[in-house]
Amino acid sequence: MFELSFIKKYLTPKRKQLSVSLIALLSVVVITLVVWLVVVFLSVTEGIERNWIQKLTALNAPLRMQPTSEYFSSYYYNVDRYSAASHYMSKTLGQKARVLIADPYDPEFDESLPPSVTYADRKESGELRDPVKETLAALQEMEDSYPGLAFQDVEMSGALLRLELIRQEKNSLNPAEVHSQLTSVSYLNSFPEKNPSLQDLLLPPTEEDLNHLLFLANRSQDEEKKEAIETFAHIEKLKTRSDLWKIPLDLLPEKVSFRAQAYQHKGQVTHLLLPTENTETSSQTVERRGPHLFYKGEDGIEIPLDSEIPLFVHGAMELLVREKNGDYFAIDGKLQKHLLRGTVSMEGLQVAKASFDTELSSPKAISPLWPFFSKGKNPTLPSTKKETGILIAKNFRENGVRIGDTGYLAYSSPSISGTKEMHLPIYVAGFYDPGIMAVGNKCILVPPHITETINASESAFTLEQSEANQFYVWFSKLSDAKLVKETLLQKLQKRGVEKYWKVETYQEYEFAKDLMQQFQSDKYLFSMVGILILLVACTNIISLLVLLVSDKKKEIGILRAMGAKRRSIASIFALCGASLGLFSCLLGLLLAFITLKNIDHVVGFLSMIQGHEAFNAQFFGTSLPHEISPRALWFAAIATPLLALVAGLFPAIKAARLNPCDTLRSE
Prior knowledge:
Blueprint: H1 2-11, H2 18-60, E1 63-67, H3 69-72, H4 75-78, H5 93-98, H6 131-141, E2 150-168, E3 177-190, H7 198-201, E4 202-203, H8 207-220, H9 223-232, E5 233-240, E6 244-246, E7 257-259, E8 261-265, E9 268-275, E10 285-289, E11 292-296, E12 302-305, E13 311-314, E14 318-325, E15 328-335, E16 338-344, E17 349-356, E18 359-360, E19 372-374, E20 379-380, E21 388-393, H10 394-398, E22 406-415, E23 418-432, E24 443-446, H11 448-456, H12 465-468, E25 469-474, H13 481-494, E26 501-505, H14 510-551, H15 553-561, H16 566-597, H17 599-610, H18 617-620, H19 630-656, H20 660-666
Parallel strand pairs: 3-24, 9-13, 18-19, 21-23
Antiparallel strand pairs: 1-25, 1-26, 2-3, 2-22, 2-25, 4-23, 5-14, 5-17, 6-13, 7-10, 8-9, 10-11, 11-12, 14-15, 15-16, 19-20, 22-23
Helix pairs in contact: 1-16, 2-14, 2-16, 2-19, 8-9, 14-16, 14-19, 15-20, 16-19
């Protein structure tokens, strides 16, 4: 095709066509910048939305089933309050799922039912219809059709959280204890052990948590906690707790001189200070020979010292742990570039690096003090003999709470003498990322028996019935949410229990609906703005091709005289425009790819300019998305060449309509 050779010829920059080349360069630069900005913005926006939805659905689940007013007014729900077999108490969804008999009422033994609960929804066989078990059966039928489908009843309640915070003074040789309390009115959510995303939500224990656990266990002489720490926490490095550390004499290698500073009182050396680095500011040295210590002053005279004189290391120091034997550690370290090797206790030291067992290959007699996963089983929330483990939101960690902090959950319960405050002893077993929750950071994950106990006590802290107890449904593909809902509703309808449930996908959650709609509006708005800017940028192509047509009138006339069709002439200039658009698009995508791969540096630069974090980590996450969105890629790859082609059509049609005779005569 001769058209391609002319396209190449016209788009190749030439000195004789300086004006055309400059306009072409300007067109490429403008379109490239527009494509770059549109792709980066859409990719970041879509990535943030995707991360936000993952956080939203990780704990809240992509689909929820709330009991309706029909359920709470039904015979099935209310009959438990009049049945001795149910201890005259309403049952939760979980309790309903575990009972063997749907209808516990015994007319010969129990009191007469009030008129409001006499109607029972029964099957044709006369058996009471069980909405909970029918729903669970419907969900089980769907497991094969939807990979990763999991479901669980979740119960919510509320209580007053009170933690006792016992801390040690920092950077002190003999740290004193500092006591304080933390009080927070909190929501309680039963631990969603069947949640497939739960492991991603849990924050791993840190070295600070381990140091705190060791401090509390030694303080209370709790052998159970000591054994759990020793079994499931593996200390790899130790470091000095303050700027001064009393180093054991036998840790110093024999016949090696260390720079030291002697402190005297009434002519007697009271203690020695050894800097961590070898400095030349002082000629004083100390040397160990067997069990004895020898000090050489600045006068060069060596004197023996009592081996009981304390030696203090001044400065930060790390020790590599080779082995742990009871309360002692076999360590390697360096002091003033000399190798230290020996055994130390934890006195004056703290953990610098450790690993934690969170996955157990087989059941153990004891369990970790933090959440753990057993092979082939659901995650477990630990407890001790005295306290129940709970999980709290990560913002508590940021405010100084650590694993091991103890306290209680307080709630009110009616008694014969009046309302009484009840306490449930708890300890902080870990932290989790709450993501996007309706109750924010005030939600505590607790074992199911705690929410059941508090809700059964008729506590003053009450939630709406439909929100206090519901089913959560998780599945792998969030894009299947609407399909899962439709399938579930069909199965519930077949079983005659659809009226008892309100089924919602994450797009319909009341607390998230507005933000979801805002995300969509922002994407559509910026896409439209991007198209408009691209249209404006493509007007440069029109100017370029109009100028090119005027410059190439003679060649067009010759081609037409030689038999070239109007369609061929039009295609040359139209494809020139499309080629510029395609080249600019590829260049813009390359810039977008480079920008997204280095987005953290861009954010750091913006933060430096503003003097604060450019993006709130609570909403945007710890880092922005690094990948190009497929939707943004298709948008740029289709819209840019297409608009450039459309822009090139107008000059192309003008070129095709030129009369060859008139053109050649004028030339």
